[in-house]
Amino acid sequence: MGRDTVQAHLAALDLVYTGVIEDVRKGIDETEELDRVTQDILIDQAAELEKFQWFVRAHLENAGGKLAHEGSATERDAASTARRKSPKSA
């Protein structure tokens, strides 16, 4: 992305977190019968990832709880949408 606003980078990062969390959740499902120890590790990892995503989203939500980049499909699109919606600095 290069140099951009904090909001733009956070919006892109949020989509990355979503993708990683989805992959970890698939791993949780796949290891349910195969290896409970691995599944437990993945559950702990998912919890940490979701916590950090929550921290990121706290900076992207408006007062109504809507994300600045809601509906964006790619990181660049999320960054662009968040940049347009973020307050302009002087």
From TrEMBL:
InterPro entries: Ferritin-like, Ferritin-like_SF, Ferritin_DPS_dom. Residues 5-62 form the Ferritin/DPS domain. Its EC number is 1.16.-.-. The keyword Oxidoreductase applies. Keywords: Oxidoreductase. GO terms for molecular function: ferric iron binding; oxidoreductase activity. Residues 67-78 have a biased composition (Basic and acidic residues). It is an enzyme of class 1 (oxidoreductase). Residues 66-90 are annotated as: Disordered. This is DNA protection during starvation protein. It comes from Mycobacterium xenopi 4042.
